[in-house]
Amino acid sequence: MSVELRYLALATALGLLHALATGLCTSLQNGYAASTGARDEMPPLRGIYGRIDRAFANFMQTFPFFAAAVLIGQALNRHDWHTEWGATIYFWCRIAYLPLYAAGVPVVRSMVWGVSFAAIWLVLAGVA
Prior knowledge:
Layout: H1 3-30, H2 32-35, H3 47-76, H4 81-102, H5 106-127
């Protein structure tokens, strides 16, 4: 398995952990009975629960682009330092992002997001 696919698999697992955390936060804030229903009247998550939910939404905004870039590289059999470092940097930034967002750290969190976003471009640079 390539470095890029390994990090894609790890990022997928991270996304599943994000989804699990968001579901848990919903249940903790609103009760498990409310979480098992249609959630039509569910209030938005607040505090740390809301930050964890928004971190997941942010992950879901970047992950498809990361996955596409890695899979394009695999399909074209393009692997170099750009694709390997881009995948590595993206994953570790996304690992750092969740606790930073959950803790409400403003500037550093945004910087980490920016680096993870640039890492996707780095993967694409290796594919081009």
